[in-house]
Amino acid sequence: MDISGFKPAIVYTIYIASTPEKIWQALTSAEFSRQYFSGFLVEIEPRVGGAFAVNMPDGAPHITGEVIEYDPPRRLTITWDVNWPGLLEALGPTLVTYELEPAGDAVRLTLIQAHDRAIDDDILSAGRMGWPAILSGLKSLLETGHAPKIQMPPPLKMLEALKQLGVTVPGM
Amino acid sequence: MSKPEFVYTTFINTTPEKLWHALTDTAFTERYWFGCSLQSDWKVGSPMQMTRDGQIMNECVILESDPPRRLSYSWLTVFDDDMKQERPSRVTFVLEPTTRGAVKLTVTHEGFAAGSKTLPSISEGWPLVLSSLKSILETGQPLAFEKPRAA
């Protein structure tokens, strides 16, 4: 997949008192993700071209993608497409990159969400709130051994904007 | 209104009261703000100074103070000759309890002049400071970026 036309829409940086190896493991394993990511299960085939998935707590598929860049424990790029009918057609693929860099006794983790077209602010609003919640939980988990339960209101603006684009949103 | 130039959200396992204290107590700020400490009586209209090793880094004025919910101050960086010439920007902290216990902290920093040197500087700085703030409130330890110097 050619990713040269993708531009960052959301960038979020957080510093974590941990090692790149542990953060990499937490980003790529269901055992960790279920603790900091609202019970969701991350699964990845550890190679470029491998399958990526985020499944619901009950195992049902939610997000599917493909591994684009795989350079542990430094850089991971995946496509990240929510399985709602019509979403991929409306938004194009969503590209997610994690960059991990040592910073003193901590690690600088940068999340980049990129798209190959302009995306409405209402749709991006979900990620602008969701990534800080997910990555705040990841930091807490690695630094304290447990992640706080962060209850998020449903991203109504995003859901409404997706409906306008003809996306089938479950439960709406 | 134009969109704020910088917005950063983090979720911290603490109470709004402890978070407010952490944002406004001189001795506490010095522990996690990479040697910077904040001094003010935090009343609207009062000055606030951010100093490191006795040098004033930023000169601020309190614009809003509603503990433990909302704090806002003007911000003029004075340690750099170019930044000192810029018009002051404005930083706002909004503290919101969430239903499951964590506090949502949103920091907005806005009102920069075109071509501001301060904007890229604070854009690097806030994620560091706010990550260290979250660490100290949750673990008792700030983030360390300098190895202890050899004797």
What's the SSE blueprint?
The complex is a heterodimer of chains A (172) and B (151).
Chain A lengths: L6 E10 L3 H9 L1 H7 L4 E4 L6 E5 L5 E11 L3 E5 L1 E2 L4 H5 L2 E10 L2 E10 L5 H24 L11 H9 L8
Antiparallel strand pairs in A: 1-8, 2-3, 3-4, 4-5, 4-6, 5-7, 7-8
Helix pairs in contact in A: 1-2, 2-4, 4-5
Chain B lengths: L5 E7 L3 H9 L1 H7 L3 E4 L7 E6 L2 E12 L3 E8 L3 H4 L4 E9 L5 E8 L7 H22 L12
Question: Please, could you describe this protein's structure?
Answer:
The complex is a heterodimer of chains A (172) and B (151). Helices cover 31% and strands 33% of the residues of chain A. With 172 residues, chain A is α+β, with helices and mostly antiparallel strands. In chain A, strands 1, 2, 3, 4, 5, 6, 7 and 8 form an eight-stranded antiparallel β-sheet that branches. In chain A, a hairpin with a 3-residue loop joins strand 4 and strand 5. Chain A is globular. Chain A starts with 6 loop residues before the first strand and ends in an 8-residue tail after the last helix. Chain B has 151 residues and is of the alpha+beta class. Helix content of chain B is 28%, strand content 36%. Chain B is built from four helices and seven strands. In chain B, strands 1-7-6-5-4-3-2 form a seven-stranded antiparallel β-sheet. In chain B, 32% of the residues are buried. The interface between A and B is medium-sized, with 23 and 26 residues.
Defining key terms:
heterodimer; A: 172 residues; alpha+beta; 8-stranded antiparallel β-sheet; 31% helix; 33% strand; globular; B: 151 residues; 7-stranded antiparallel β-sheet; 4 helices; disordered C terminus
Share in β-strands of chain A: 25-35%
Low-confidence stretches of chain B: 147-151
Coarse shape of chain B: globular
Strand content of chain B: 35-45%
